[in-house]
Write a structure and sequence with these properties.
It is a single chain. The protein has 276 residues and is mainly β. Helices cover 1% and strands 25% of the residues. The protein is built from one helix and 23 strands. It has one helix at 222-225, and strands at residues 2-3, 9-10, 29-30, 45-47, 52-55, 69-71, 76-79, 93-95, 100-103, 117-119, 124-125, 127-128, 141-143, 148-152, 158-162, 168-169, 184-186, 193-194, 208-210, 215-216, 241-243, 263-265, 272-274. The strands form six sheets. A ten-stranded mixed beta sheet has the order 4-6-8-10-13-17-19-21-22-23, with no helix packed on it. A hairpin with a 6-residue loop joins β22 and β23 (272-274).
């Protein structure tokens, strides 16, 4: 709880940002990441989440050389991810999900060699996953799911929704095998295409894989299915490996053939049911 100078207080634990925040306590507000953010140069943790902070993220963010944790999710930050973000060599966590960020992931994100956790889901982002991302050997969590598509409405403003036809594109690179510490890969609800490379079998710590509601075709390689005998499992064997492996449009062959998925979805109807 933050106590204000006028005697009132706001509970910053209430979610406000992203798409669905209009009915919540607004929390704190302001354009805190615009120019002059470098005045916080000695900060190790920037905890801004679950508020109503807005504006863009300044290129000056690169001056926070000591930053380790950057958590600004559930706000209304807009604009693009600045290239200067990739100069933060000590950062381990970047949480920017549920904002209004658009454009692509900076091409030099691979320079963030200590990054372990990257969460950008529920933003209006697109383009291919940059090759340099596959060089972040410490990466454990990659959440890019549920990309948002926004359209201008007649009454003014924008109407946004999660649409699997919009978002990150391209394919999963064969370089994914470099990410041998990867534990969670969530890319569902994006138009990512191609096939699953066999090199994913090198990600032996993978415990959560969501590739449903994408344009990924083919079948689950044996190298991936073998991970089901390792970390890609759970007590009830549900929720760990989602793919579009139900009969497509209820009657056709599955969009993605999978003998080892824990949960299957219909690529056309978008309905997901546990594959019992």
């Amino acid at each position: 709880v933050c106590y204000m100078s006028n005697g009132t207080y706001v509970n910053t634990l209430f979610e406000q940002g992203g798409l669905y925040g209009s009915n919540y306590n607004p929390g704190l507000s302001g354009r805190v990441l615009e120019p002059k953010v470098d005045k916080w140069a000695s900060l190790k943790g920037l905890q801004l989440f679950d508020n109503s902070f807005s504006g863009t993220i300044s290129e000056d963010i690169e001056d926070l050389k000591e930053l380790v944790f950057f958590r600004a999710h559930n706000n209304v930050f807009s604009g693009y991810l600045p290239a200067g973000l990739t100069n933060l060599k000590k950062v381990r966590e970047v949480y920017l999900h549920k904002n209004q960020i658009y454009l692509d992931i900076p091409s030099h994100i691979g320079d963030m060699e200590n990054l372990e956790d990257l969460r950008l889901h529920e933003n209006e982002m697109f383009d291919d996953i940059p090759d340099s991302l596959y060089s972040i050997r410490k990466l454990k969590y990659l959440w890019l799911q549920d990309t948002v598509y926004c359209e201008e409405v007649q009454e003014g403003g924008y109407e946004c929704s999660i649409d699997s036809d919009f978002g990150f594109t391209g394919t999963i690179s064969t370089k994914i095998g470099n990410l041998d510490k990867l534990q969670q890969l969530l890319i569902n609800n994006n138009p990512i295409s191609g096939i699953i490379p066999t090199e994913i079998g090198l990600c032996e710590n993978l415990a959560l894989l969501h590739i449903h509601k994408t344009n990924i075709v083919g079948s689950a390689p044996i190298e991936l299915c073998l991970l089901r005998e390792k970390s890609l499992n759970s007590e009830n064997d549900v929720g760990v490996f989602y793919a579009d492996c139900r009969p497509n449009n209820k009657t056709q062959a599955p969009f993605f053939a999978c003998d080892c998925c824990s949960d299957c979805c219909d690529h056309t109807t978008k309905v997901c049911i546990a594959d019992d």
